[in-house]
Write a structure and sequence with these properties.
This protein is α/β, with parallel strands linked by helices. The protein has nine helices and ten strands. Strands 3-2-1-7-8 form a five-stranded parallel beta sheet, covered by helices on one side. A three-stranded antiparallel beta sheet has the order 4-5-6. It has a two-stranded parallel ribbon with strand order 9-10.
Length: 279
């Protein structure tokens, strides 16, 4: 039984990230497996080294420790290339020279269905070794695997690493649910195992929007600076997730047994519930 927490280092961790990390950690601790930390730093524009350090620091401060070494996606290009070559041999990939602007918009989109690309280059026979974006033939929106500048797409790299790390249990934010069909398609093309996937609730800010690290919403660091102790942050998350009946400070270890009754149907932690954080 192996789980992972796979943050993208595009900002400081916020309480929603910590809540997903806590759930993935508790799930695996409850069944006695291993939990890995994977840094999804494939996006050269958004990933920053200081955010990697910040995420690791916050997880450790909260008492969420990880097994083995941290896996960095930025060091995994050769594995992604091998998987790509396998799909090329199956005649499943084509090169696309469409505008950088359109490609930039779609690459990092985790929602395959918003990619409106209609397959303009499908039958052009462009060289797969040229300075072009590589796309998958066998999916409605022809999703990108690798951009013209050789940056890898999330939906492709993440399944390769889940297989590499032998991940059996995935806990990720509910906002990533739309990725599952495409990721499962990649898994079946690559003859990979299918992990079980669980969706952690989304945390919304006072404006009712999902809180986001990239938009500078209140971070774990802000809370620590305001005087919250790591255990009080865990206690608050546990209460909002109904892992605990009160929001008393507690360590992640103290919640391992409570996890057994966690209800995965919880979809959202509403703004009213977290409003108190901003006061
Ligand atoms: N790296 C993704 C994110 O931070 C999560 C990926 C996943 O759990 O599959 O949104």
């Amino acid at each position: 039984m192996n789980g992972r927490f796979a943050p993208s280092p595009s900002g400081h961790m916020h309480i929603g990230n910590a809540s997903t990390a806590l759930l993935s950690w508790l799930q695996i601790k409850n069944i006695g497996g291993k939990i890995y930390l994977r840094i999804e730093d494939i996006d050269p524009e958004r990933s920053k080294k200081n955010y990697v350090n910040s995420i690791v620091e916050d997880l450790n401060a909260l008492g969420l420790f990880w097994d083995g070494v941290v896996l960095f996606q930025s060091k995994r290009s050769s594995a992604y290339k091998l998987a790509l070559d396998y799909l090329i041999r199956q005649n499943l990939i084509f090169a696309c020279s469409c505008s950088k602007k359109e490609i930039r918009q779609t690459l990092w989109s985790k929602n395959a269905s918003v990619n409106s690309y209609s397959g303009t280059c499908l039958n052009k026979g462009l060289s797969l070794d040229g300075p072009f974006t590589l796309r998958l033939k066998s999916w409605s929106s022809y999703p990108i695997l690798r951009r013209y500048d050789k940056a890898w797409a999330y939906n492709f790299s993440t399944v390769i690493d889940d297989e590499y790390q032998n991940i059996t249990h995935i806990v990720r934010g509910l906002d990533l649910k739309e990725c599952a069909p495409l990721q499962n398609h990649f898994r079946s093309l690559l003859e990979y195992n299918s992990p079980r996937i669980y969706y952690a609730p989304i945390w919304c800010g006072p404006d009712k929007n999902k809180i986001s690290k990239r938009h500078g919403d209140i971070s774990i660091k802000d809370l620590l600076r305001k005087g919250w102790s790591p255990k009080s942050i865990i206690g608050l998350i546990a209460a909002r997730l109904n892992l605990n009946s009160d929001s008393d400070a507690c360590s992640p270890d103290a919640l391992i047994d409570n996890y057994a009754s966690y209800n995965w149907d919880k979809k959202v932690v509403s703004s009213n519930e977290v409003l108190s954080l901003w006061l």
